[in-house]
Amino acid sequence: MDGRRKLIVVSNRGPVGYVRDEGGEVVAKRGAGGLVTALRGLLVHHDVTWIASAMSDEERARAGEALEQTGRDGSRYRLRFVAHDPDAYDGFYNVVANPVLWFVQHHLWDLPRSPSLGREFRDAWERGYAAVNAAFAEAVLAELDREPEAIVCFHDYHVYLAPRLVRDGRPEALLTHFVHIPWPQSDAWRVLPEPVRRALHEGLLANDVVGFHTERWARNFRLACRDVLGVEADDHALVTAHPISVDPGEFEELAESEAVLAAEAEIEATRPERLILRVDRTDLSKNVLRGFHAFELLLSERPELVGRVGMLALLNPSRQDIPEYVDYLAAIEADVARINERFGSVIALEVADDFHRSIAAYKQFDVLLVNPIYDGLNLIAKEAPLVNRRGGVLVLSENAGVHEEIGEWALTVSPFDVWGQAEALAAALDLPGEERSRRLAAIRDHVRRNDVGAWIAAQLADADRAAERRTMLP
Q1: Which of 66, 177, 337, 389 is most buried as measured by Cβ atoms within 10 A of its Cβ?
Q2: Could you say which architecture CATH assigns to the domain 6-244+454-472?
């Protein structure tokens, strides 16, 4: 179906936030994260109301009202902030969503020691996660009163319960939910109490469409529904897989912007002969430590590379309210200090949120290391090749969702095999120029042909299929 659609987008973070600058003036700030960036493409072609959590005092003051917004390209949309009780949001975000659901779905537990789910988790589940999801559902129902024909598009692990609440209130509503992180096999869910894991799966199956980035995650979801609920997921929802992407034109434009060119000049002035790059959040799932250990092993085995090959690690600090993440960042900094003491200053570590510097580094890498333990997709593996100028080679974890798409043009590694990662880094550095260029061009061509616009179109086509499917059901 062509033409503008009425959409209600629901995600924890919105496309723009409000903060006070140093002068005390309220200013709008671009929302962070790949999900928000990708979903901006919806705003251009459709009539969107975006529902998101109020994060700042300025956003809480504007909660409940629909704010008319203008995107960077001039597109208009409505933004509705939902203000949550601070204690409820803390339990939702810092006890359930990130330390528990994220850990379950990325296989991050040290099972002999954790999790140990006591009273704090139960309270956070009932008074935090469930309460915040109920507030999201209430906001969606209010918007459906205004636009009953709108398609509701839920996103990610923060809002697994909301679809069931909306379905109970509006049985006729067309609901979709895209899960942007891995879906593990059913045994992984058994760390959670039985009522909790049932509620999560039932919440998702209340949607007409449940989408994932890969067939692997979709298959796991079907198996988990069978094992956890005893039902066939496809009997309840259209379960699909479409890998998210980026806007190639936006990255190519940014690559020549003043801010990126200035950052690139700094990197170029200080870079070694060959540059290995990693750009990540300091999240446990990103496998940063094993990447450093692989680089250390490479230099141990190939001492002639010391002084010629260096690593630039641009790491965005992540979730520093959670103890495991604080400890992980400390371990990262300690390992970099140890390796640099051993070999000289071979790793340049920058812990900051600097998008323009990341794009500048994309242009300069000879090898890009993307080695997550598990990743729903990983957009960096798509972004960086678009603007790289040095025939850069991608070393890619087999457990990154994007491997299903572009793995044939990368050097594949197991995220747990440090020796194998060291060998892959060496092989990437040794690849002939013609082969490097061929692989890079293939990834670039694939991303250009399968851009974020194609991903959005696939979501809406799924919604149309689900609507048609409804008419055929008894």
Answers
A1: 177
A2: 3-Layer(aba) Sandwich (3.40)
Q: What global pTM score does this model have?
A: 0.94
Domain boundaries, the chain: 6-244+454-472, 248-449
Q: Do domains 6-244+454-472 and 248-449 have the same CATH topology?
A: yes
Distance CA 206, CA 137 (A): 13
The candidate with the shortest Cα–Cα distance to 383, out of 303, 311, 335, 451, is 451
Fold assignment, 248-449: Rossmann fold (3.40.50)
Higher pLDDT, 190 or 323: 190
Residue 377 to residue 212: CA distance in whole angstroms: 9
Amino acid at 267: I
Measured between alpha carbons, how far is 15 from 56 in angstroms, rounded to an integer? 14
How far apart are the C-alpha atoms of 397 and 413, rounded to whole Å? Answer: 5
Segment 131-172, tens digit of pLDDT: 999 999 999 999 999 999 999 999 999 999 999 999 999 999
| Per-residue pLDDT at 1 exceeds 90 | no
**Based on the number of CB atoms within 10 Å of its own CB, is 417 exposed (0-12), middle (13-18) or buried (19 or more)?**
middle
Cβ contacts of 33 within 8 Å, gap of 6 or more: 13
Average pLDDT over residues 7-25: 80
183, 375 contact by CB (below 8 A) = no
Q: Which residue has the tokens 């190519």?
A: 252
Burial class (CB in 10 A: 0-12, 13-18, 19+), 323: exposed
Q: Reply yes or no: is the peptide bond before residue 115 cis, omega within 30 of 0.
A: yes
Phi-psi region of 307 (alpha: psi -120 to 50; beta: other; left: phi over 0): left
In whole angstroms, give the CA distance from residue 419 to residue 422.
Answer: 5
Tell me, rounded to whole angstroms, the distance of Cα 198 from its chain centroid.
Answer: 24
The whole-number average pLDDT for the span 445-463 is 94
Distance CA 303, CA 306 (A): 6
Higher pLDDT, 72 or 160: 160
Secondary element (H or E) of residue 342: helix 323-343
Alpha-carbon distance 375 to 287, whole Å? Answer: 10
Q: Which amino acid is at 390?
A: R
Rg (CA), the chain: 22
- What tokens does 17 get? 């936030």
Which H helix or E strand runs over 30? strand 26-30
60 in the Ramachandran plot: left (φ > 0), alpha (ψ -120 to 50) or beta?
alpha
Q: Answer yes or no: are the C-beta atoms of 275 and 365 closer than 8 Å.
A: yes
- Quickly state the pLDDT bin for 79 (edges 50, 70, 90): very high
Q: Which residues fall within 8 angstroms of residue 442, CB to CB, at 6 or more apart?
A: 406, 408, 409
pLDDT at 5: 85
Q: Which two tokens stand for residue 370?
A: 């993307």
